[in-house]
Amino acid sequence: MVSRNSFKFVMLPPQSDTTRAWARRLSETVPEVRVVVAEDADAAAREIADAEAAFGQLDKQLLSKARNLRWLQAPFAAPPAGFYFPELIDHRVCVTNFREIYNDHIGAHILAFVLAFARGLHMYIPQQLRREWKKSPLEAGDVLHLPETTALIVGVGGIGAEAARLLAAFGVTVLATDARRTSTPEGVSEIHPAEALDALLPRADFVILTVPHTPATEGFFNRARFQRMKKTAFFINIGRGMTTKLDDLVAALHAGEIGGAALDVYEQEPLPAEHPLWTMPNVLLTPHMAGHGPYLDDRRFEIIADNCRAFAAGSPLRNPVDKASWF
User: Fold this and answer.
1) Less CB within 10 Å around the terminal CB: N or C of the chain?
2) Could you report the per-residue pLDDT of 73-110, keeping only the tens digit for each?
3) What pLDDT was estimated at residue 139?
4) Which carries the bigger pLDDT value, residue 246 or residue 1?
C-alpha cells in the first residue's frame, strides 16, 4: 500500500465561484489535502508561509514568504510573460500547468482555418457581406486539393499532434518541428528539431504555429521567415501572439510574400480597431477563443486532483514545467 501524507494546499487570489467549488471538491475527494482558500492578498501572504503546495500565480514577495512550498499548480496551460521570474526559476518548487486540456478544441479550430483557406472562404465571406454573387474561375487556383498540400506544424505538442491527426485524415502531408519531441505522432510524416524551421518553410502550403511564448520563441516569426514561405502559403497562429511580429506579417501580406493568414492570438490583445489586419482581404481573425469549448473546468479540476493525489503519495506530478524555458 502506498503511504500518503497530508499537506496544505492554498488557492491563491483572485477567487471565483469555480475555484471555491474546486476547493470543496478537493476536500471531499482527496482527504490528504487541507485546502485553504485565500480570498485576498493579506490572506495569501499569511497562508502561504507554511503551505507545501499552491494554485495560482506568485510574485516575488509572496514567494519569499513561502518557507515550505514544493509544488505550484499554474492556472494556465501556457502562462503569460512574467509568470516565471528569476526567483521562481531558481526556487526548488515544481511548477505544473494545464497543458493538454485544449487539444481537441484548438485542433478543430486549426482545421477550420485550413478548410476555410482550402475552399476560398476567406474570399467568399467578404462577398457575402457585400451581397455579391461571384464565382472564381476554376483555373484561378483558389481551391486547394488537400491531398496535394503540405502543412508544417511548428511545435508538435498535444495541440499540434491533434491537428496533425486531423489534417492527415484529409490527406494533408504533415511536417513538424519541435524543441523536445523526437518521436513521430500519428499523422506526422516527418519530425525535425526546431532548428530545421527555415529549411522546411519553403515546402509548406500551411505554416501552423502552436508553440508557447518563451524566451526562444518571442518574435521569432519575422519578415525573414515570411519571405522563406511560398507566395501561395497560408500562415496560421493559434499558439501565442508574442511569437509573431504583426508589423512584419502585415508587410509580408502587402508585398504578396504569402497567400494569407489566420490568427487567434496577437502581440497586442485586443487587436486595436484601427489595425490593418481587420480589413485585409486574405486574413481570418478570431478573438483568442480557439480553446473555447465544453468540459474545460472539469479537465482543470482533474489535473489538480490528480496532482494532489500524486503529491500526497510522493509520486511524479502531471504536466511538470521546465521553468527556465517557461513550458
Assistant:
1) N
2) 999 998 888 999 999 999 999 999 999 999 999 999 99
3) 67
4) 246
Q: Are 261 and 282 in contact (CB under 8 A)?
A: yes
Instruction: Find the catalytic residue in 122, 240, 309, 318.
Output: 240
- 288 — alpha (psi -120 to 50), left (phi > 0) or beta? left
Say whether pLDDT at 243 is over 50: yes
Q: Could you tell me which residues come within 8 angstroms of residue 247 by beta carbon, excluding any fewer than 6 positions away? A: none
**Rounded CA separation 133/124 (Å):** 9
Q: Could you give all domains of the chain from N- to C-terminal order, each with its CATH number?
A: 7-100+294-313 (3.40.50.720), 103-285 (3.40.50.720)
Long-range contacts (CB closer than 8 Å, 24 or more residues apart) made by 245-254? 245/219, 245/221, 246/275, 246/277, 248/221, 248/222, 248/223, 249/221, 249/277, 250/276, 250/277, 250/280, 251/223, 252/223, 252/226, 252/227, 253/280, 253/282, 253/283
Decide: pTM greater than 0.90.
Answer: yes
Inter-residue contact 97 to 77 (CB < 8 Å): yes
DSSP-assigned states of every residue in 274-326 = T-GGGG-TTEEE--S-TT--TTHHHHHHHHHHHHHHHHHHTPPPSSB--TTTT
Radius of gyration of the chain (CA): 22
Q: How far is 293 from 325, CA to CA, in rounded Å?
A: 28
Active-site option among 119, 165, 288, 299? 288
* DSSP letter (8 states) at residue 67: S
> Is 240 among the residues known to form the active site?
yes
